């Protein structure tokens, strides 16, 4: 260890120790103290080794993970299903940078803004990592003056949230977004988004699911007729949003005790948010003496009714529920909102964990079990347009990490062998000193577009070459020996049956193609 | 505009103005001043509008860009070619987070470290955006104790470099990496990496190309026998690296005047770095009275000889040149290094621009025209292993942005129509009030896996629906009218020929599949 480095680290430890002491004296939050203690330990670890080497902390950043080849194989499968669905619906795709100007993200996420990752000011523009794909999409539309597009975007987003990685909640995670921008007849694009969620969740075969639907205008109207003051709509809305993780009694307590709502108003809200149904419920509420007083609520209810008529045409009403307790956190929604949940036993909500994740748990996709969400955001593009021109938009975001977790668990449970390569054939030899001949054959096959593997050492053992095929699922082996070379053939071995047959060199490519269709 | 916001912005402008004045007074570098002026202008722009609205700067961060659907279509094509090649060679794939612990990147990139993006310290770990995919790969191997893998990784990396976007040089850009880790017989994996570059550049059809090969040990040996002091190897090496952008006279001047090398040593280097050849050159240099005095150089030369024998087996020697002037910047290379250049007229090096990009232009893939590079890095994994255990590695990185630029230019030049969706059929109607019937048919087709488009408004004009098909390359139209509904058929129109034929509803799916194979 370099003495200069050592001294520097020791000084850093000293000053970091003071930071921790100060926080403790100030009775700072446990989270804050934990973070600083973690930094301290990291520094101490560097001095650690007896051999005088600087010790690295060998890990990925908190809340992130690597994907190994098996996980990548699952990921590829999931993405294929999703992309195929998006393409079936005629969507184009775009991509945007992983970071945006900081101001692009400002004022779009309400309370969740504190979870945005900022880049260090190293001179130049101030930048933040994207928090979702919706705001960059809106920026893209405004910047390119696009008023009409159906697009999908699959990319990673970043949130400084409390990770719960075993449940598929990360700080770096994929979103698969599908959005329709443009002026269409009411509720048709909204219904198509729900159709997409339905198709994807069905095809991924994750067990039963439910799609909850509500409307921001119904929520706001409900708050108004229940006597919630205007300036408390947002904060009461985020309390309602906790209903999928807390019983009503606790939610009510938070409204009354923490947010200062009258008991009476809270009780009235409680009555509404317990309602679930379909088109019938929307019709009933349109007749409701109180609810019908709110113009906003009526507009929302009429649209929900219309929405359900399209859902019928699309044949997906069996999984969709109009649920007045659904209230998604993000500021930018203006109309219909929805969220999809897996309801199968094995993947049911885990309430305990969700409650532990206290700070930062107000983020959008709060409910454990939730795998997709979205809604209408007619005002967002206008926030980026110099003249405030609006472009109506509706979209849905599939949260892939949780789906990965489930698929991984399923793959493990059924001991299914996942192939991590697509190799069709292994070029092997039983005898020594045939490396050159193997490489010549490998080149022939590569040049013919065959996926080939070869253990590129002088004298590999035939048994270990065959074992490798069995373990990694390679279906064929081409075995070369002096005799085969003399005869101008290769011995083609089928790994599963151990059947062997001589094939002439000129017919090998066709034979491989035929057998690995 | 909110008065509080306005006041805040005005104060920010004031203090930013002082920053700029101070820098000017201190005669800071032009770059530094420019950066701060840019920030000042950004702030002023916010106050700009007469309508009192805060003005957004509607752009992506410096050195980054969005991909529109056409660019995405090209990107998908290029990725498909590359991934297909990687899979043909039996590679698995992994993914790593976009950021790493800052210390993971420390000490890996030599002078280029200043180009790393750091994240802001918001509590918790100190993070940086990945600078390449090689260091995360080495970290992954050490962390998971993997000593043997052939893997590819396609992802974005980040460098705070001087962008030259028209030439395909960005701050956020894709790398497509293929690496072989593990103990193999010498030079076989190295040769396979070159084979991969050869295959990909051939298949992408980008015109003629050349792959330069050299070896770090040959460079170091050459420096030693030419009398370069040990502690100047790296800095002289990075000067040699500029030979593809500067004439020898200027390179020599930099060595002698800036780096303090003796004129005699520089001249000797000059003689060597002008040498190009193949296996024969390696043989000749092994006999060279001076060069052969360096054990290191001899080891490198023997390996280059062996490498060329495998390149012959792989049938790729026609594009590979042993070139003693090749010197890649990154610290971690230990053996063979290589770089691929496009040599076709239209894509030749642009010397003027490269020279302008003075600061930050010392980065790895300096040479304009360079589209791939890599080499052997046997020590990198050991830097992450607590016990320093080494894993020999060799790899190659395909620089995709430049290839995108060329493909885009080509697509524009030949006015080729690039489809941005894969829609097979448009469901249209000639009459009003058939929206429901159209949606019913669309649902039928979606459920049968057909890629369908439908203009989801009540009364679209048939002509505009047909026009949309011609513009976006949709090959078929299903036209619905009262008569067709009564007869249980749809009118199937072939867009290209305008031929129309009635197809019974039950046979439609099969007919579409047949016609859009």
TrEMBL record, chains A, B:
<dbReference type="GO" id="GO:0004821">
    <property type="term" value="F:histidine-tRNA ligase activity"/>
</dbReference>
<dbReference type="GO" id="GO:0003723">
    <property type="term" value="F:RNA binding"/>
</dbReference>
<dbReference type="InterPro" id="IPR041715">
    <property type="entry name" value="HisRS-like_core"/>
</dbReference>
<keyword id="KW-0648">Protein biosynthesis</keyword>
<dbReference type="GO" id="GO:0005524">
    <property type="term" value="F:ATP binding"/>
</dbReference>
<dbReference type="InterPro" id="IPR009068">
    <property type="entry name" value="uS15_NS1_RNA-bd_sf"/>
</dbReference>
<dbReference type="Pfam" id="PF13393">
    <property type="entry name" value="tRNA-synt_His"/>
</dbReference>
<dbReference type="Pfam" id="PF00458">
    <property type="entry name" value="WHEP-TRS"/>
</dbReference>
<dbReference type="InterPro" id="IPR000738">
    <property type="entry name" value="WHEP-TRS_dom"/>
</dbReference>
<keyword id="KW-0547">Nucleotide-binding</keyword>
<dbReference type="InterPro" id="IPR004154">
    <property type="entry name" value="Anticodon-bd"/>
</dbReference>
<dbReference type="GO" id="GO:0005829">
    <property type="term" value="C:cytosol"/>
</dbReference>
<dbReference type="InterPro" id="IPR015807">
    <property type="entry name" value="His-tRNA-ligase"/>
</dbReference>
<dbReference type="GO" id="GO:0042802">
    <property type="term" value="F:identical protein binding"/>
</dbReference>
<dbReference type="InterPro" id="IPR036621">
    <property type="entry name" value="Anticodon-bd_dom_sf"/>
</dbReference>
<keyword id="KW-0067">ATP-binding</keyword>
<comment type="similarity">
    <text>Belongs to the class-II aminoacyl-tRNA synthetase family.</text>
</comment>
<dbReference type="Pfam" id="PF03129">
    <property type="entry name" value="HGTP_anticodon"/>
</dbReference>
<keyword id="KW-0963">Cytoplasm</keyword>
<dbReference type="GO" id="GO:0006427">
    <property type="term" value="P:histidyl-tRNA aminoacylation"/>
</dbReference>
<feature type="domain" description="WHEP-TRS">
    <location>
        <begin position="5"/>
        <end position="61"/>
    </location>
</feature>
<dbReference type="InterPro" id="IPR033656">
    <property type="entry name" value="HisRS_anticodon"/>
</dbReference>
<feature type="domain" description="Aminoacyl-transfer RNA synthetases class-II family profile">
    <location>
        <begin position="34"/>
        <end position="407"/>
    </location>
</feature>
<dbReference type="GO" id="GO:0005739">
    <property type="term" value="C:mitochondrion"/>
</dbReference>
<dbReference type="InterPro" id="IPR004516">
    <property type="entry name" value="HisRS/HisZ"/>
</dbReference>
<protein>
    <recommendedName>
        <fullName>histidine--tRNA ligase</fullName>
        <ecNumber>6.1.1.21</ecNumber>
    </recommendedName>
</protein>
<keyword id="KW-0436">Ligase</keyword>
<dbReference type="InterPro" id="IPR045864">
    <property type="entry name" value="aa-tRNA-synth_II/BPL/LPL"/>
</dbReference>
<keyword id="KW-0030">Aminoacyl-tRNA synthetase</keyword>
<dbReference type="GO" id="GO:0032543">
    <property type="term" value="P:mitochondrial translation"/>
</dbReference>
<dbReference type="InterPro" id="IPR006195">
    <property type="entry name" value="aa-tRNA-synth_II"/>
</dbReference>
